[in-house]
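User: Earlier you gave me the apo prediction for this protein. Now I'd like the version with calcium ion bound, so I can compare the two side by side. Same sequence as before, with the ligand SMILES added.
Assistant: Got it. Here's the input I'm using:
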Amino acid sequence: MTTFKTLKIILATLALTALNLMVGVLPITLAQTTQPNVVIIVTDDQNVDSLPVMRKLLSYPEGSWIKFNKAYANDSICCPARATLLTGQYAHHTGVLDNRSGNLLDDTNTLPVWLNNAGYQTGLIGRYLNEFPWDRGRDYIPPGWDYFKVRGIPTKADGRANLAVDFINTSTAPYFLYLAFNEPHHPARPLSMYADATVYLPPDPPNFNETDVTDKPRWIRGRSRLGATRMSTLRAERVRSQRALLGVDDAVQLIVDTLKAKGELDNTLIIFIGDNGYSWGSHRYIGKACVYEECGNIPLLIRYPDSPINREENRIVSNVDLASTIAEYAGITPGLPQDGESLIPLLNGTAINWNEDILLEVHAARNRTLFSIRAPGWKYTEYANDDKELYDLTADPYELQNQVNNPAYAAMRDELAARLHVLTGGLTPSTTAQELQAEEASDEMEWWLEDEESAGTVETLEHGLYLPQLGH
Ligand SMILES: [Ca+2]
Ligand SMILES: [Ca+2]
Ligand SMILES: [Ca+2]
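And here is the structure of the complex with calcium ion:
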């Protein structure tokens, strides 16, 4: 302190031209250091029910966290959801309608491209889009990425976290890091230190193995109840899944600690998000790409450095909002029309009259290609095969009784149908149905269970070998 004061006195006695030079440099330096960093951490197939196992994340490390309880994946399957994160557009606008169409994304006009053009150092570690690099060659790197590590990297959370730490420590601000973990996707692989850990296991929800499905659309009505073998296989995998998330939890803490040590915590937006949810036997269904809460609702926690407190946010948002959010925080303009809107007003508490109508869409199978509206208290769905669903989520949060044919709900049904058609711009689910290839994907969705039950183990399979077939 004394030294600094002395220096100031010396400076004050310097020649006037020298002093002018010092003052002249100062605003430029400040402008550079205030351009913020963004770190987004993406998990794979994480149901929100799993979150209590992540004790470090839920302790809100270093404060300023906003936990979104009603965040959704517009399209609750990996590749479409990730294309949405990278563009701020719905799946039916990106063209990435299923896991086999990642090559349809216009990768010349994405969030990393916009940030890179604005002077950001951009890095991706982990999963990009399914079946990448398609026919573009093993060395292909999509535009916009300065650092792109999808191959030859550790598969587990600790190894990828170490790469993230290296990226943060060696990058000059501003930077954008997209860190995508494999966890807790099946078959879950916990770190060896957590292989036998005692973990929180979510209780079966009331819609688990739903008894009466006569109210449901055809694709659910055609499903048998889960038997004892199927249920025990499922539970064993769920335990491994929870253990695998302990590694991710450590990774989040490590990244926060790294940013703190580097002095950048107050200048970095940290987003923790799941790509899509997962139905662990709800409505007799195991998998994703469904319209029910288990598939659509995703973990979303954002550390917004300016927030004076940690708090929960219950207004409805979706993954289509993230690109706009990051763009606004970084002070850039998205290069694409945005289907979402920036969450900054929710993060800084200035939002008034937030529009909570969001679009859900699935194009994963002939009998469950759908458009749906999730609105406060309600969900209304139209399928390509003309099945429809309406849930009064205040009275029936577990979606046990479809009310679409109940005359008492007719007015609400008609109103939601009109609001849904505003969201789709008049598109109907049959317009976008990619029926043939999707039919195959849905049949493969549960083969991992059948395989475990018949062979006793799938441990010899390498992660990369089965991803394209699984509907990852
Ligand atoms: Ca996924
Ligand atoms: Ca760059
Ligand atoms: Ca029912």
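For your comparison, keep in mind: Residues 228-261 form the longest helix (34 residues).
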